[in-house]
Design brief:
Number of strands of chain A: 12
Strand order of the largest sheet of chain A: 4-11-10-9-8-7-6-5
Distance between the termini of chain A: 35 Å
Order of helices and strands of chain A: HHHEEEEHEHEHEHHHHEHEHEHEHE
Oligomer: homotetramer
Strand content of chain A: 5-15%
Largest sheet of chain A: 8 strands, parallel
C-alpha cells in the first residue's frame, strides 16, 4: 500500500515494478538460479539485531564520512548498475546528478548507456568511481580507464565476481536484450557493432583469466586507486590488501552471479577483520533501510553501496526519484545513528549488533 | 474468534481494533519502519521455553512483589502510553483507577491527555510513576516533575530511547494527529498553543542532547527516584547504576523507535546481570501472557510493564476493560508461577527458562 | 486425504475430528493458552534427526522391552486420558482391551468414566498402571489406590504437573462439560454428587500442596511402585530418584497445563542423564510416528506414552481403532529400529540422533 | 512457469509430473512416512552457503574428475532408480545412453526393467556401476553380479539402507504396482513368476541379515570393487573402510526408507572426515543445482549421484531429456566452480562453504 508519495525504498520498488517493461524489470530485479542469495542478502539483515546505547548527546548527528579520503555526506554510495537508460531516459547522467546532489559518490558501470565523460559532464561537482570489467581486449579496457581518469573519476572499482555470466533465468525466459535504440558505448567499442546488446554479449568480452598477479600490475599502473568489488572471504581480503588495493567491496553482485553465495552482511565481518586498518571495506547488497546501513557499519563496513534502491528511484521519478531514495536513506541512517547513540558513523562499533542465530 | 466475553489479551486486541478509529489504532498499534522489532518483541518470547519444577506446595501462590519498595499485587506495571483519551473518553484517569484497583503502579506519560494532578485525584489510593521526556524547555520539564512530585508520584521514569522521533510509517500514511478537541497539557504548556497535536510536535520539544552527566544531575536534584527507561545494553546498565538510578526499564519503546533493535526478552538477561543487586530491572515490550511475565522474571526482571494490552482493555471497555486485562495477567501469572513450582515471583530463577535457539 | 483405511496416526486424528462432537473434540485436542507447547511437542521432534547405522543383522527385530520389570511388546504405553466414554461408548474398558491385545500397559486416568475394577475386569490378562491425582480428600484418594492395587494395577503414575488447572481456552469458549449421562466415579466419590462434571470441578479436588515429603511418604506407604508424571528438569529427576520412585514420565500434560513449557523431546535428555540407571524414564507428548519413538529412546527414554493417538483410534473405531493405532506404532517402531540398525530397543543409543539447531 | 524449453531441473520435475501416470509419479516422487527427509535432503542445502574466492584464472574450467579411477566428465553420477521403463519406454537403455553421452557413470538398479547385459549393449562405450540388493537367494544374487561383471560394469553399489521396506504411504494409498506388461528381470528370476511386481514383492526378496562380515566376504570374493550405498554415520564409514570398500555413498535412499533420517548434505562431512583418503565418498540425495554439487564437494564428497532429476529428464523427453538434465548440471557445476574460483573439482575445499545455523 504505497502512499501517493513514496516514503521508503520499498515504495519505490513497487512503483518501479509498475512502471518498467517486464523484461527490463526482470533484468534489474532478478538474480541467479533460484534467487536464494538475492533473497538472503535482504533476509540476512533480519538475523542481526541492533543493540542501541542511550544518553549520548545526539543533538548534532552527522552521517558524513570519507571513502578513500573523499568526503561524502552519508555512508551510502551509488552502486554500479548497467543500462540505466533502460530504467529512465535520464540514464546515468541523471543518476550522477542525483548522487552529486545527495553529496555522495556514484559508481558508474562499465556497461553504462553513457560514456564516462558524459556522466562527468552531467554532474561536474560530483564524485565518481568507475566500475571496471577487465575485457579480454585490453586496449578497449585501457581506453575506458583513461577516459574515466581524464574525466575525474577517483577510483576504479574492479569487479572480480563475474568472470563467467551468472545464470539469470528471468532473462533466459524473457529473452531479455537491451533495446536496439539504447547505446552501450563500451560494448560497441569492444565489439565494433552497435546492434542490440544482450548480457551474454557483455560477458563474452570479460577476461576470465584475471588473477592476483594481474591485480598487482593494475594497482601499480593505474593513476587512481583500485577498489576490489566482489569479495566474500577473509583470505581474499588479506591478499587484496597485500596487493595494495585501496578498498574492498563485499558483494555477491546483488545475488546475480553465484546463487547460494553467502549474504553480504554475513560475510562482511570476517572480511573487515582481515582487512584491518589497511583497506577500507564496503558492503554491497541487501541494504533497504538506514538500520541496515548502521548494521553494516557495526560489522565493519565503512560505507555501503546501494544499487537497486537507487535504480527504482530513477525508474519511478528520474533524477528526483534517485535523489529522494538517497535522502530517505540519509535521514533513516541519521535516525538510526541517533537512536544507537552514535553521533557519527565512526562511533558505530561491533557492540551495536548481535546475531539472533549464532 | 473472540468470545462474547474476552478471556485473554488477544481478545482485547481484536476488540480494540474493531472499535478504534483507524488512524488512532494505527498510532497505538504501529511501530517503526518495517515493524521488525514490534513483531520480534512478541515473537522472541517464543524462542524461550519454561522449564517447570514440581512438588512444591503451591496451595498459596502470591503474585505480589515490590518495585522500588512499593508493594504491588502483581509483577506487572502499567506502561506509559500517550493520548489515552483517544482510546476512551475515560483517558488516563480511568487507567489510573484500573491500575489502582488491580493493585499495581500506573506510569503516566508526559504526553498524557490529563495532568498529573488530575490522574492522582482520580485514583488517590493508587501508586504512580511519572514518565518523563526531558524537554528542551527545562522550565516546563521541571514544572511537570514538580506537579508529579506534589501529586504523590513515586518515581520518574525517564525515557532515553527517544531523542529523535521514530519513523512510524502508519502515522505518515494516515496523517495521524490527535483530534483537536483532545488536550495534551504538557505539549500546550511547552508550545503555548493548544491546536491539534502531532507526534512530530511532541518530538520537537524533546531535548536530544541529554547525556549521562545530565542524568547524574537529575538523580541528585529530584526528590523521587529515577528509573531509566529504554535501555538495552549491559554497559549502559552499568553506567546507569553508577549514576544512582533506582531502576532500569529494558525497552525499545514498543518497537516504535529503532526498528531492528533487539527484542526486550533477548536483551534483559545481560542488563539484569550487569545491574546485579544495585538496581531493579524491568522489561517493557511483548508481554501478552502470564507465561511471558514469568519468562521475564526468570531472565532477571523484577516486574514487567504492559502498554498496549492495558490500552486495548481501556479502548474496548474503559476502566473495567483495563482492569480486566490486569486481572487476566494476574491470574495467568499466578497460574504460571504455580505450574513452575514458584509460590512467589521471588522463587523464579534462571533455571526456569531455556532458549531453543542458543 | 485419509484413505478409506487409515494407515497412520494422522489419519485417525482426522477421522476422530470428523466424528466427535466439537466440545468433546476441543477438550481432547486442545491445549493451554496459545497452545505453543501443544504444537511444540510435535514440532520439536522435527528438530532432531535420526542417524542410522547399517549392516546389522535385522532379520529378527523385536520391539519388546520391559517397563518396571513388566514385559511389553512395544516401547509404547497408553497414556492416561480422562473421560474416554465421551470418545466412544466402549470407554476405558475398550482401551484396556486394545492395550492388552497389543501387549502393552494401559495407564488409567483417575478421572476415568469407569472404575479401576471394571477396567481390570474388561482385560484381565492386561497390564495396567493407575494414574493418580492426589485429592485433598485423602480418604477418597486412598480408596482409589486401594481399588487399583486390589484390581492388579502394577504401578501408580502420580501426576504432579497439575496442582492448578491449565488455562484451556477451547473449553472456556465452548463451555465444555462432561455430558450428564456419563459417570466419572472418582469425582462422584469425592464430591458426593453425580451431576455433570466440568474440568474445573476436577481440579477443585486436587491437592496443590503436595510436595517432595509427601512423595517420600507415598513411596513408603504404597504397595506398588510410584512413577512420577510431569517432570521436565534434571534436578527434579534427581530428587525423585532420591525419593525412591520407580519411574519418571517426562511430560507437560500434553501441552494442557503450562503453555510455553519445554517440549518433552527437548527435555528428556537431561532428565534421563540425571536419572541414570536408578529410575526408568518415559516420554509423554508429541509422539506420532515410530521414528518419534526411536528418537525418544535415543534421547534416553525407556518407552513413550501416547495419549491422543490412542484416543483418536478409540473415537474413530472403538477398541479396534485403538488397537490398530498401537499396531501401527509397533510396526513403525520395528521398521525404524531395523533401519537404524537396532534389533531391539536396547540397542538404541545417543549416537542415533542429532539436533539440527544446536 | 517452466519455459517451453526447460532450463533447469525444476522445469523437468514439473514436466514429468504432468506426463506421468499419478501412481507411477507417486512412486518416483514420494518418500517415507511424512516425507520429512525427502524434503530435508533438498532444504538442508539451503542451510549451507558458498563462500567464493576470486582472482583465480578460470578461463579453463573442467568439471572432469575420476571416480574409482574412472574418468568422468562431471562429478555427477546417475543414481540407481528402479523401473525406469515406467517413466519412459526407452527405460534403462535410454538412461545408459544419456549417461554415456554426458560422459559419466550410470548406476543400474537391481530392480531395473532391463537386464545388465541389455543396458551394457545399449551404451557400449559408457561406464556403469551395478546397484545390488543382496537377495536371500544368493544364487540369483550371484547371477546378477556375474552378468554385471561380464557386461563390463565397473563396480557394485551395494545398498545397505533397505533391509526392510520403507513406509511409502503414497504407494499404499495409490495401490501402486509395476504395470503387468513391464518386466523386472531380477524379480522374475528370484520369484520364478512374471506377474505384476509391487515394491513389497521386491523387499521380500532382500536379505535383512546382511552384516559387516558378509560385506568383508563380498569384498574378497567380487572381481570388481564394492561401493557401500546408504551410509550416514562416521563410525560406519570407518568400518566400511576397514572392510576394504572402494567407495561410500552417503544416502538415505532419497528419503524413501527411514523418515527423519539426517539429510545427506548434513551427514557427508563427518563421513568424509572418517573415510579420509582411504575411500571415495559420494553424496546421493537432494542435489538439484550445480551449486549443490559444489557444496557437496566442499563438504568432502568426490562426486554426487542424482536420481530423480535424471529420471524427470527421461520421463519428459526420453534419452534426450535425461542427457539434457546432465548437461544442465554440468554447465551449472562448471559455472559454480568458476565463480568459486575453482578451475577443477579438486580445487574445492571446506573453506568454500559455511553453515548458517551452526
Amino acid at each position: 500500500m504505497p502512499a501517493a508519495d513514496p516514503i521508503n525504498c520499498a515504495d519505490y520498488e513497487r512503483l518501479a515494478e509498475e512502471l518498467l517493461e517486464p523484461g527490463a524489470h526482470g533484468y534489474f530485479a532478478g538474480g541467479a538460479g533460484d534467487e536464494r542469495t538475492l533473497r538472503d542478502n535482504v533476509e540476512a539483515f533480519r538475523r542481526w539485531r541492533l543493540v542501541p546505547r542511550v544518553l549520548v548527546d545526539v543533538s548534532q548527528v552527522s552521517t558524513a564520512t570519507t571513502v578513500l579520503g573523499t568526503e561524502i555526506s552519508l555512508p551510502v554510495v551509488v552502486a554500479p548498475v548497467a543500462f540505466q537508460r533502460m530504467a529512465n531516459e535520464g540514464g546515468e547522467p541523471a543518476m550522477a546528478r542525483a548522487a552529486a546532489g545527495a553529496g555522495t559518490v556514484m559508481c558508474l558501470s562499465t556497461i553504462a548507456t553513457s560514456r564516462p565523460s558524459e556522466v562527468a559532464a552531467a554532474a561536474p561537482g560530483g564524485h565518481r568511481w568507475m566500475q571496471l570489467y577487465c575485457f579480454k581486449d585490453r586496449e578497449v579496457t585501457e581506453a575506458i580507464v583513461a577516459e574515466a581518469v581524464e574525466s575525474g573519476f577517483e577510483a576504479i572499482a574492479l569487479t572480480v565476481d563475474a568472470p563467467w555470466i551468472g545464470p539469470r533465468e528471468r532473462d533466459l525466459r524473457s529473452g531479455f536484450q537491451v533495446p536496439a535504440e539504447i547505446d552501450v558505448p563500451a560494448v560497441a567499442a569492444a565489439t565494433g557493432s552497435d546492434g542490440p546488446v544482450s548480457v551474454t554479449d557483455v560477458f563474452d568480452l570479460i577476461d576470465p583469466s584475471l588473477d592476483w598477479d594481474d591485480l598487482a600490475r593494475l594497482v601499480e599502473s593505474y593513476e587512481i586507486p583500485i577498489i576490489l568489488k566482489g569479495v566474500a572471504a577473509a583470505d581474499d581480503a588479506e591478499r587484496a590488501a597485500e596487493c595494495g588495493v585501496a578498498g574492498i567491496i563485499v558483494s555477491n553482485h546483488g545475488g546475480r552471479q553465484l546463487d547460494s553465495a553467502i549474504a553480504t552482511i554475513d560475510a562482511v565481518g570476517d572480511v573487515a577483520d582481515a582487512a584491518g586498518d589497511r583497506v577500507e571495506v564496503f558492503l554491497d547488497g541487501g541494504v533497504r533501510r538506514g538500520t541496515d546501513v548502521v548494521t553494516a557499519l557495526a560489522r565493519g563496513a565503512r560505507a555501503v553501496l546501494v544499487g537497486r534502491p537507487a535504480l527504482w528511484g530513477l525508474a519511478a521519478r528520474g533524477e528526483d526519484g534517485a535523489r529522494h531514495v538517497l535522502e530517505i536513506l540519509r535521514s533513516e541512517t541519521a535516525l538510526a545513528l541517533a537512536l544507537c547513540g552514535c553521533p557519527t558513523p565512526a562511533d558505530v562499533r561491533g557492540k551495536h549488533v548481535m546475531s539472533i542465530v549464532r
